[in-house]
Amino acid sequence: MEAIFAPIDIIKKIQGLNKNCVIILGNEPVVSNHIKTDIKTYSDLNNIEYKSIRFDSSNKLDQIRPLFENTSLFSNQTNFNISIASGRILEETKKFLVKVISENNDDLFSIHFESFTKELIKSAWFTKIKESSIQLEAKEPSTQEIQEAINARANFYNLSLDKESLSLLSNLSLGNLLAAENEIIKLSLLGIKTDIDVKKLISHISNGSKFDSFMLLDYCMSGQIKKTAEALSYFEEEGIEPLILNGMFSWVFTAISKLKFSTDRSVTNSKLIELRIFGTTQELVRNSLNRLSSKQVEASLNKIKEIDLICKGMRIGDPWLEINRFVFGISRLFNNKTA
User: Fold this and answer.
1) Please, which residues have CB within 8 angstroms of residue 315's CB and are 6 or more apart in sequence?
2) Looking at residue 208, what is its pLDDT?
3) How far apart are CA 139 and CA 123, in angstroms?
4) Which helix (H) or strand (E) holds 7?
5) Which pLDDT does position 253 carry in this prediction?
6) 23 shares its domain with 69
7) Do 125 and 271 share a domain, yes or no?
8) Which domain holds residue 280?
9) pTM value?
10) CB neighbour list of residue 322: distance below 8 Å, 6 or more residues apart
11) What DSSP state is assigned to residue 161?
């Protein structure tokens, strides 16, 4: 199944294939919300009643059947948006869904399987529904797909990111499409449409009226503990994604690590640019190479990876607590070395 990160005209597509159902597999929020918004927009524009229905294995057929009645006085057609927390629903419900989709060709259906298994996809009732459907994935893009996904989302907002800025944004978001999407939306609201290069991206990404994430990096890695605390507090109050802040440190420490453990110890401008280190950040990297030991660099990278997993819900922990501990630790470390 091909990954499509910004599909459009979904209803027109299924109608062109003489189908009436869209199956959504997965619960990645950017793509799943995009698909549902595209379908609802079509319904609104064409005066089709739009009904959201959510159920699971605890719902019996007599509870579900009335939900599929058209109650609109203005439309004879209904678009049923069905969310199923898991593929495990009662057998009678499965039979009902197959029947209602196959017999109501004029109505439209979207079924969102938020969690799915190989067994579900191979099951007889799913196979039957698939005959009337197109199938779309809504899952976190892989490492190989993240730049393609970010580019698709940028194009959807009429933004043009060059190759370098795409690479940087994918690094800063640590492969999390929702974090990248938030930054793309901010850029679109700023009115920047075309030719967004690395310098423009760095100038505007996560930019606030008082602090931006590059200022936090500068305060932290120059040992300005008080300013570091003020910036962190501001970002938390403003609801900035901790994943993006962690991505900023991942970007810088990955470059530091590559230079620190390289057999060629020379640090030229061209090397730094190859590692996508620009502007004043170049000086931070140079200073860090002199002041941090190999063990400290390695420990920092391990902590950044741990915070990444916590931010993505793959490890238990409080993202803001952990990012505060890490950033303060680095700031104190540099403060001691400059004292």
Assistant:
1) 306, 309
2) 47
3) 21
4) none
5) 93
6) yes
7) no
8) 146-338
9) 0.72
10) 303, 306, 307, 310
11) B
